[in-house]
Amino acid sequence: MSFSTDRFCESVYKPTRMCVACRERFLQAELVRFSVCDGQVVGFVGFGRSFYLCGECSNCERKVAKALARFGAVRDKHKGLVAIREIINHG
Questions:
Q1: Which phi and psi angles does 15 have, rounded to 5°?
Q2: DSSP 3-state assignment of 12?
Q3: Would you tell me how many other CB atoms lie within 10 Å of the CB of residue 46?
Q4: In Å, how far are 3, 35, 50, 55, 77 from 84, measured between CA atoms?
Q5: How far, in Å, are 46, 52, 79 from residue 22 at the CA level?
């Protein structure tokens, strides 16, 4: 029995996550990860609860506002929207 490295590479697990706005699944690398600290949206800092947004949803104010409402921990939705835009634009 021969072992093909090509077949092995195809079967390597690639993590998928769900965008909280559109509820679709994407490869983890295609999404932006955020967390909420003290009621404010920040880029993921390595611990605590977090959420993901896809590129399309992160550009739609209505979808982001809906996602933040669903997440529930953000005090000021407008500041949350601004923070998400800043994190996406400035890394």
A1: -65, 140
A2: coil
A3: 6
A4: 46, 10, 13, 11, 11
A5: 24, 10, 21
The secondary element (H helix, E strand) that includes residue 27 is strand 25-27
Residue 87: closest CA among 62, 64, 63: 64
Cα separation, 75 vs 72, in Å, equals 8
Q: Is 51:63 a contact under the CB 8 Å cutoff? A: no
- The Cα 27–Cα 2 span in angstroms is 31
How does pLDDT run along the chain (91 residues), one tens digit per residue?
455 555 555 568 899 999 999 999 999 999 999 988 888 888 998 888 889 999 899 888 888 888 887 766 677 777 888 888 888 888 6
Q: Tokens at residue 81, please?
A: 């929207």
Query: φ, ψ for residue 32 (rounded to 5)?
Result: -105, 135
